[in-house]
Write a structure and sequence with these properties.
- The protein is 48% helix and 13% strand.
- The strands form two sheets. It has a five-stranded mixed beta sheet, with helices on both faces.
- It contains 13 helices and seven strands.
- A hairpin with a 3-residue loop joins strand 6 (301-303) and strand 7.
- It has helices at 4-7, 18-24, 30-40, 46-53, 57-90, 97-106, 113-122, 201-215, 229-232, 234-243, 259-271, 280-295, 311-325; strands spanning 162-172, 175-184, 190-196, 222-225, 246-249, 301-303, 307-309.
- The protein has 326 residues and is of the alpha/beta class.
């Protein structure tokens, strides 16, 4: 049969042609049939292919006009998925949709939040789910408690005026490594930290001295913590007095009274990427790298006024605003 027969009424697809296979296997998805027509239209007339496959010719041409746009969107989605994957890997798998979207905007990518959510969902890219931790708080019931000067208001009008502190532990094959930190509530920057194989009062005092050296703390700065024995000890209170700060403490057994510090531990343990370290030295190095190279300088946090910034950028923003006010 000649190709001319295909143009004439009554013409048909030759035996063995893939179109006959489509018909024998029953009705296929419309897009699949449109794709087949587009691939074969250089060989057979569109009119014949549409008649044999039982589709409307005008609908095929409408689909063909939008095919180029669909392919362009698919290519754009693939490029965006590559960028999202790189951001997600750079965060050690910690970032979910909000921070990935914020990082893309910082890089100059004007992309919709819902589009980022869809692409991450389709490719099963998810952030870290935080775990609950066991508290180290051991109250000293004979010590008189310090007043709560924070009252669950974990904000500050400027850096160096309000700190929150706590102690956590990290498991190693050598035993626990204890970590004490102080966060500035204005920036959520870790301004002081110390690590040891014990959690005595000098551990939190060492972290506070570091905060004073690098955090530009003001006289009378509030240092808020829970009522663990390290913070109610005479040694710690003496250290607070010598540094010229004011002590504040939440209620015993209430994690919400020190929620900002608890939140940081959840971030650290969820995003540092290790569950058990081979030794304390390795754990120390990983904590140092997490705080100094990632958390303080690269990890985005949504500030209620400034938007998504790193803690270091938030501190600089406060400085710039103070300079303009002066």
């Amino acid at each position: 049969m000649s190709r001319r027969d295909l143009w004439e009424p009554g013409g048909e697809i030759p035996p063995g042609h893939p179109t006959r296979g489509l018909l024998r296997q029953g009705q296929r998805p419309v897009n699949e049939m449109y794709q087949f027509i587009a691939a074969e239209k250089a060989v057979y007339p569109v009119t014949l292919l549409c008649r044999v496959l039982g589709v409307v010719r005008s609908s095929f041409y409408a689909w063909l006009e939008t095919e180029q746009d669909r392919r362009a969107r698919e290519r754009a989605d693939e490029a965006l998925a590559h960028e999202i994957t790189l951001i997600h890997l750079a965060s050690k798998g910690a970032y979910g949709v909000p921070r990935v979207h914020a990082e893309l905007r910082r890089l100059g990518r004007a992309v919709n939040h819902k589009r980022v959510e869809r692409i991450m969902r389709e490719r099963r890219i998810t952030g870290v789910t935080r775990r609950r931790r066991r508290s180290l708080t051991r109250p000293d019931r004979q010590a008189s408690p310090a007043p709560d000067l924070i009252g669950r208001d974990f904000t500050a009008t400027r850096p160096g005026t309000r700190l929150v502190g706590d102690i956590t532990y990290l498991p190693t094959h050598e035993g626990w490594l204890y970590l004490a930190c102080w966060l500035d509530l204005a920036t959520r920057e870790v301004v002081g930290y110390a690590m040891s194989d014990h959690h005595h009062a000098e551990l939190v005092i060492d972290a506070l001295r570091m905060a004073q050296d690098r955090g530009s703390l003001e006289p009378g700065c509030i240092t808020h913590s829970d009522r663990g024995s390290e913070y109610t000890s005479a040694q710690f209170r003496t250290g607070i007095g010598r540094l010229g700060f004011r002590q504040s403490a939440g209620r015993t057994g209430s994690c919400f009274d020190n929620a900002a510090a608890e939140s940081f531990w959840a971030v650290l343990k969820g995003e540092i990427g290790t569950r058990v370290w081979p030794d304390r030295a390795t754990a120390r190095a990983d904590v140092f790298a997490f705080i100094e190279t990632f958390y303080n300088r690269r990890r985005l946090r949504k500030h209620p006024v400034f938007g998504y910034l790193t803690p270091l950028e938030t501190r600089q923003r406060f400085r710039n605003d103070q300079a303009l006010a002066a």
